[in-house]
Structure formats: C-alpha cells, structure tokens
Amino acid sequence: MKFVSIIMGSKSDYEVMKSCSDTLESFGVPYELIISSAHRSPERTKEYMTEAEAKGGQVFIAAAGMAAHLAGVLASKTIKPIIGVPMSASALSGIDALLSTVQMPAGMPVATVAIGKAGAINSAYLAMQILALDNDDLTIKLKEDRIAKAKKVEMDSLEIETKIES
After folding, report:
1. For residue range 43-87, what is the model confidence (pLDDT) as tens digits?
2. If you classify domain 3-134 with CATH, what class do you get?
3. Which of 22, 45, 59, 74 has the fewest beta carbons under 10 Å from its own?
4. Domain boundaries, the chain
C-alpha cells in the first residue's frame, strides 16, 4: 500500500502537523505519523526510513524546528521525495528552521514549504500531487478541490461587492 509518512522532530510539532494529517485524511490518502529526531534518536530515524520504504512509503514529510536537520537526514537515506516543514520553535520564529531546511547541498533535494500551519497543509497537498502522478482518482479529487476553492473566492467576492454597493 502506498502512503505518505509524516515525521516530526518532537511532540511539540503535533498541533501544527495535525493539519497535515487532517488534510491527507480529507482526501482519503493513507499516512503514518511518528516522532523521531535527527539529533536525539538518529538510529530510530534511520530504521524507520528503511521500514517505511519497504512497506510502501512514497513521500516523506519532515517537520522540525530550530536546526531542522530532520529533512536532510531523511534525504540522505532515500531517493523518495522529501518535503520539509519548518517549525516555529525558537526565538527566531522559524526562520532558522526555514534556512536549515531549504539550504540543502546539490544532489540532496528537500522541497521546502512555509513555516508552520500553512506549510503543514501545503506539504500534504504537495505529497498528494506527487502521488497523483499515477493515481487518477486522486488527480480528480485535487482538481475538484481547486474548483471548489475558486468558487469560494468568487462567492466571497460577490458577498463583499454586494455589501459595498448597498
């Protein structure tokens, strides 16, 4: 079974990353969610990557703050797509995590999304877009979602325009 793996560097990342798993659930995309640290549990991280790939892990989402080495460690262990979600876990409000996640050496790509909740949600969407490359049902769901979002903008605009004209 193909699935998305969400790996968080610490339990404190869960509240933000729950929006990632909720987004995947809303599209019926299977996922696993674990806590494993690049620094505090490197062997657990390495073992999990091997196991997850063997059982169908297709895209890996790494959420980490501060030094945010988790995405880079994952990238060193697989050729599957890695999506990094920088967490706001320090006095620098996630800028440190953003830079650590996005500044990968050539040949070790990590797709990096926004800091925090928007990034968590976008990581789910990016993972689904990758999976949709060979999944027509998911492609249709993503297209329908885009249409619904566009219609909402139109409805919101009409509502405001009506109030302005009144």
Report:
1. 999 999 999 999 999 999 999 988 889 999 999 999 999 999 999
2. alpha beta
3. 22
4. 3-134, 137-166
